[in-house]
């Protein structure tokens, strides 16, 4: 039975946390839960993953994970082997843990509204096993007031305990990016919005010792909930800006990356401008939905916001735009798409991950399939099962076979493996005058051209 962390003095919490005697339960062992759980276990904490999916639990207990994050497999294997990480479907395991971190999913509904059903179910299950001294930390991305108006009443009703009195409660958004999740988890400051000061301080103590990061304490959970939405709206809008600049630069025959790099040297508001990079699309579980959460939030208070809709619309045009670039490039080579061989490199939603959830690459692949071209698809990160969600064409396991005799290479995810094959080797394998469409602007145009390809990036 855990000793309880909430309600103790700061010095006691500090000692308890530093002694790594506090167990940490992570409820929802999907992408984010597994990253957090494995990192905390690797850093010395006893971690219990709780998930409703038996298959996920079984896999973790075998020391395995299908979450396609660089370095995560090793952390899971090692932590399970030394006995610091285990998983279960039984919420009774909460009794052995002082901290309860909730990372269940919050998908988008058919009318672009947030679905918080899993949050409610998880809160109910946690509440049924809640004890005095627990600190519950919600990390899922949620609309403002979810912690206070949905999670808190459920926890209090099911447990008979009071938040801020008997147990601690806070919202701490997860702001890591897939592909560099482990590094970011242990380097990005954590925003803490708690129902009371003691919960906030206990959270900050945990993050300082467990992850080695600072906390940014805001007034309350709803502010912290809004912070996460503001961050992701900023990313989506910023990429939309870069994408529209890229389209203009394409027409004008300019290099958008040069424009952006130079534009970013302008100081503004105490720091430099930071226009992000254009690409063939924005996807994944967060950026495709969180702007809609903001849009929905605006509607709920009688506001018709323009920005979320605009950023989503602009970014959603990019796959078709990228496909259009390909057909133009082929035409310049006297070829048509119908009789060309096209090799797609990378179908994950971004570089160096195998996650295909809401990947923009799916729309490019669909257009290629419809075109009747001869298509091969290669992605070293994506398991076959996940690949089926993008295309029915079986993945070509090795890059050399995938690109053989291709008239066009389309890099839709710029995985590091693609940079390890010498460009001249790729050029030897492909057809003469092969087009190299770099959908992630992850290659050096001069090097690609020097190898004999016709290079084109997004906006360059
Ligand atoms: N994926 C990202 O890069 C990212 C980054 C920051 C924040 N987030 C946010 O974090 C949250 C989780 O995202 P994810 O990508 O890990 O989702 P996910 O779908 O991979 O994982 C959610 C997990 O919760 C489990 N679950 C569902 N209901 C449950 C319940 N009642 N009890 C216990 N487990 C339950 C599911 O089985 C699943 O394993 C979302 O709100 C997301 O918006 C995600």
TrEMBL record:
Q: Which residues form the UDP-glucose/GDP-mannose dehydrogenase C-terminal domain?
A: 343-445
What PANTHER family does the annotation carry? UDP-N-ACETYL-D-MANNOSAMINE DEHYDROGENASE (PTHR43491)
Record keywords: Kinase included? no
What organism does the UniProt record list as the source? Mycobacterium terramassiliense
Q: Which GO terms describe its biological process?
A: polysaccharide biosynthetic process
Q: Which Pfam families match?
A: UDPG_MGDP_dh (PF00984), UDPG_MGDP_dh_C (PF03720), UDPG_MGDP_dh_N (PF03721)
Q: Its family?
A: Belongs to the UDP-glucose/GDP-mannose dehydrogenase family.
Output the Gene Ontology terms for molecular function.
NAD binding; oxidoreductase activity, acting on the CH-CH group of donors, NAD or NADP as acceptor; oxidoreductase activity, acting on the CH-OH group of donors, NAD or NADP as acceptor
Which UniProt keyword terms apply here? NAD, Oxidoreductase
UniProt xrefs under SUPFAM superfamilies: 6-phosphogluconate dehydrogenase C-terminal domain-like, NAD(P)-binding Rossmann-fold domains, UDP-glucose/GDP-mannose dehydrogenase C-terminal domain
InterPro entries in the record: 6-PGluconate_DH-like_C_sf (IPR008927), NAD(P)-bd_dom_sf (IPR036291), UDP-Glc/GDP-Man (IPR017476), UDP-Glc/GDP-Man_DH_C (IPR014027), UDP-Glc/GDP-Man_DH_C_sf (IPR036220), UDP-Glc/GDP-Man_DH_dimer (IPR014026), UDP-Glc/GDP-Man_DH_N (IPR001732), UDP_ManNAc/GlcNAc_DH (IPR028359)
The protein in question is named UDP-N-acetyl-D-mannosaminuronate dehydrogenase
């Amino acid at each position: 039975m855990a000793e309880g962390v909430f309600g103790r003095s700061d010095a006691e919490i500090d000692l308890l946390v530093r002694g790594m005697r506090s167990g940490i339960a992570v409820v929802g062992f999907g992408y984010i839960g597994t990253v957090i759980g494995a990192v905390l276990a690797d850093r010395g904490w006893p971690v219990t993953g709780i998930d409703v999916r038996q298959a996920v639990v079984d896999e973790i207990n075998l020391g395995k994970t299908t979450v396609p994050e660089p370095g995560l497999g090793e952390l899971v294997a090692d932590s399970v082997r030394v006995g610091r990480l285990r998983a279960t479907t039984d919420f009774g395991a909460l009794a052995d843990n002082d901290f309860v971190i909730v990372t269940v999913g919050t998908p988008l509904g058919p009318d672009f509204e947030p679905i918080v059903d899993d949050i409610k179910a998880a809160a109910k299950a946690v509440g049924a096993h809640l004890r005095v001294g627990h600190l519950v930390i919600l990390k899922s991305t949620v609309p403002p007031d979810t912690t206070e108006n949905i999670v808190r009443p459920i926890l209090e009703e099911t447990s008979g305990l009071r938040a801020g009195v008997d147990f601690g409660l806070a919202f701490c958004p997860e702001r890591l990016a897939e592909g560099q999740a482990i590094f970011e988890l242990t380097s990005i400051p954590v925003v803490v919005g708690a129902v009371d000061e003691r919960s906030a301080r206990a959270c900050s103590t945990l993050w300082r010792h467990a992850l080695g990061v600072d906390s940014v304490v805001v007034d309350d959970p709803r502010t912290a909930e809004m912070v996460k939405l503001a961050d992701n709206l900023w990313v989506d809008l910023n990429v939309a800006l870069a994408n529209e600049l890229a389209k203009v630069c394409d027409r004008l025959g300019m290099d958008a990356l040069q424009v952006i790099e130079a534009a970013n040297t302008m100081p503004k508001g105490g720091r430099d401008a930071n226009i992000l990079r254009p690409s063939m699309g924005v996807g994944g579980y967060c950026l495709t939905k969180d702007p809609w959460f903001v849009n929905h939030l605006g509607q709920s208070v009688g506001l018709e916001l323009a920005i979320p809709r605009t950023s989503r619309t602009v970014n959603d045009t990019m796959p078709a735009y990228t496909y259009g670039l390909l057909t133009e490039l082929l035409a310049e080579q006297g070829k048509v798409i119908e009789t060309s061989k096209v090799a797609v490199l990378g179908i994950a939603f971004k570089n160096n991950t195998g996650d295909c959830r809401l990947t923009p690459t799916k729309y490019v692949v669909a257009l290629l399939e419809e075109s009747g071209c001869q298509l091969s698809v290669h992605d070293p990160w994506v398991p076959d099962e996940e690949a089926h969600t993008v295309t029915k064409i079986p993945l070509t396991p090795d890059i050399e076979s995938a690109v053989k005799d291709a008239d066009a290479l389309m890099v839709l995810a710029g995985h590091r493996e693609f940079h390890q094959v010498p460009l001249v080797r790729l050029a030897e394998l492909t057809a003469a005058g092969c087009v190299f469409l770099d959908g992630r602007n992850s290659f050096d145009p001069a090097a690609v051209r020097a190898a004999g390809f016709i290079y084109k990036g997004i906006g360059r």
